Amino acid sequence: MAVINETTPDSQKDLSLYRRIREHPHVLRLTNIAGEMLPKGLYARALLIIITPIVVLEGVIAFAFMERHWQAVTRRLSEATARDIAALIDVYSDLPKADNAQKIVDLARDRLNLKMEILPPGDLPPPGPKPFFRLLDKALSNELRKHVQLPFWIDTVGESQNVEIRVKRDDAILRFVATRSQTYASNSHIFLLWMVGSSVILLTVAILFLRNQIRPILRLADAADAFGKGRAISEDFKPRGAREVRQAAVAFLQMRDRIKQHVEQRTTMLAGVSHDLRTVLTRFKLELALLEDTPETRALSTDVNEMQHMLEDYLAFSKGDGGEEAKPTDLPELLQEIVDEASIYAATIDLKVRKSKGDIVLPLKRQALKRAITNLVTNAARFGDHIIIRVAPEGQWVRIEVDDNGPGIPESERENVFRPFYRLDHARNQDEGNSGLGLAIARDIAKSHGGEIALGQSSIGGLRAIISLPQ
């Protein structure tokens, strides 16, 4: 049977776009850089979404209006200046030079507000640098070309407050100096003030509005985080904010109630199962005690004890943290208690606590975390004779390490051993009484605190188990 691979035009476009991007890795790098520069928080992103289009639209409108205004006013001013200069040139051409040169200069100064000089004949200066915005040069040049109709030279850059114009005649060069306001409508400060002022007002309104809209989302996130770590949710937490946020908060509260009900039902069921199975095992032990001490009864007694240990592990795994509430707990004190209780093992156990500014007190489910660390210590004591327990705060986390000098676990198997009922085939997991649940229970308890557990290479040659807990 033939297989026909059909692609739609849209998929072909997407594929070709993807290929072009792959052929130009710098485009992908620029995209990644832009993604890293953009804000990550909802508050900042919402502000960006609101402010950016408004400011851009406002800027385009204001720029278009001011640009047209500048062009119209500048053209009118340049036309008036060019007409004045043309009139002065005509007067200079018609009157005798010797007698009336000074009168023309005075007329330009007193009546037209132009500074005029009559220079000896010669060539015009070479063209100077052009300004970045050539609006004045363009408008003034067009008007002079239209009204004067003589070679001319203008300088709008040399003196920031004045504009110099030179007109070449056969008998002289006429130099005119006008103020910039006579030829150019410079209102850039108004434009900048308009943009900055309106942007500040918009930003202030948006911040005040968004702060009230984001606060319920942050409260919902804090409540979900606290519930996920087994901590008590603030009593004043109620659905607030926009309709969608209230719906999410109501759904979260309903989910919390269902989870609590499920945990309570499971705990009640496990308590009944535990009681009934322990009763049966107790009867087995009593019946075995009444029998004669023979190799068969000793084997049966060993099997009963193994069944009891495996039952305790299964129940502990199914029970999890048992709905225990998190309370402030002195972690070094808890670890010292675990070390004291583990003194029955043949291994040497050292506890090392890194010095910190204050006590290491965390909101913990004390019995659950004790069970998790005890599982790690028991596992280490089973395969090594030297154990080191370290605890140290690291930023927003607290790190607990359990090192041993046993045979360790291959790196390829370190993730598999966290699977329930998983057993290795090497010397670290060959004892018959091992149910394969110790590490799975420890990881579940660590995750119920919002933390994690990982395995690594011990500094003393064996296995290192690392529990990371949030402060």
UniProtKB/TrEMBL annotation:
Top EC group: transferase
Record protein name field: histidine kinase
Membrane topology: Multi-pass membrane protein
PROSITE patterns tied to this protein: HAMP, HIS_KIN
This protein's GO CC annotations: plasma membrane
A Pfam short name: HisKA
SUPFAM superfamilies listed in its UniProt record: ATPase domain of HSP90 chaperone/DNA topoisomerase II/histidine kinase, Homodimeric domain of signal transducing histidine kinase
Catalyzed reactions per annotation: ATP + protein L-histidine = ADP + protein N-phospho-L-histidine
Main localization of the protein described in the UniProt heading: membrane
GO molecular function: ATP binding; phosphorelay sensor kinase activity
Organism the protein comes from: Hyphomicrobium denitrificans (strain ATCC 51888 / DSM 1869 / NCIMB 11706 / TK 0415)
Keywords: ATP-binding, Cell inner membrane, Cell membrane, Kinase, Membrane, Nucleotide-binding, Phosphoprotein, Transferase, Transmembrane, Transmembrane helix, Two-component regulatory system
Subcellular location: Cell inner membrane
Ranges where the Histidine kinase domain occurs: 272-471
UniProt xrefs under CDD domains: HATPase (cd00075), HisKA (cd00082)
Domain of life of the source: Bacteria
Residue ranges of every copy of the HAMP domain listed in the record: 211-264
EC number: 2.7.13.3
Transmembrane regions: 42-66, 190-210
